Amino acid sequence: MKLTIGICDDDSVHVDLIKSYIESMNIPCKVDYILAYSGEELLEQLNKNIVDIVFLDIEMKTLNGIETGKKIREFTEDTIIVYLTGYRHYAVEAFEIESFHYLIKPIMETKFVKLMERILTRIEEKKTFRDREKILSIKTRDHLIQLQYDTIYYFEKYFRKLKVHTSDKTIEFYGSMNDLLEEIDTSYFIRCHQSYIVNKHKIRGIQGNTIVLDRAENFCIPISRTYKKEIMSIFYAKLFS
């Protein structure tokens, strides 16, 4: 997972402070920062980037944080907005634009870290929900079948066909591994062998050159040397996240 975090405050000290708090948490994913010192500057940068979280000061010159937040909401409902201010009387306006939280300055590290942990949990929950809702359409000889990503364990090359193994059935269809990789979301699936593609979220463990999938029968998938390093990296990231 990768996060893009925006921090906007007309006081550079507060921008640096928030960034230092986040960095001290050692979040187990890549974090990109958008640092801005006015609402206008933040909006200009957001036009070119997708941002997951924005920490936004309310009292700024020209375009204040409330108006900036309203403009953010015009082009995204998913960004988590957290307001920073020294005054409580903006709370109603802040929550009207569906902000996640409202921090009163001075911002203490312990309080900030607890809030950030809640935000990361919310992001992970939303990602899991979106992934479960993703659908793969498969055309067999007689039917068009739609499968939710979350039900798929792995794909297997079988002569000129492919097999998709789900939680309750196996389906054969004509296709190639390369065409399949172009169609599926590779942030969810990964190739581990010339003949296999696995669901990253179903990986339970690694034993030598095999992947143990999270199934009752502990089904094992081979890993070829070409893909071993990437598979191990994904497994450790999952293990320590």
UniProtKB/TrEMBL annotation:
Residue ranges constituting the HTH LytTR-type domain according to the UniProt record: 136-237
Entry annotated with the keyword Phosphoprotein: yes
Entry keyword set: Phosphoprotein
UniProt keyword annotation of Phosphoprotein present: yes
Positions carrying 4-aspartylphosphate: D57
SMART domains assigned to the protein according to its UniProt record, in alphabetical order: LytTR (SM00850), REC (SM00448)
Residues of the Response regulatory domain: 4-120
Pfam families, A to Z: LytTR, Response_reg
Entry-linked PROSITE patterns: HTH_LYTTR, RESPONSE_REGULATORY
GO molecular function list: DNA binding; phosphorelay response regulator activity
General function of this protein: May play the central regulatory role in sporulation. It may be an element of the effector pathway responsible for the activation of sporulation genes in response to nutritional stress. Spo0A may act in concert with spo0H (a sigma factor) to control the expression of some genes that are critical to the sporulation process.
PANTHER family in the cross-refs: STAGE 0 SPORULATION PROTEIN A HOMOLOG, TRANSCRIPTIONAL REGULATOR-RELATED
Protein name: Stage 0 sporulation protein A homolog
Species per Swiss-Prot/TrEMBL record: Alkaliphilus oremlandii (strain OhILAs) (Clostridium oremlandii (strain OhILAs))
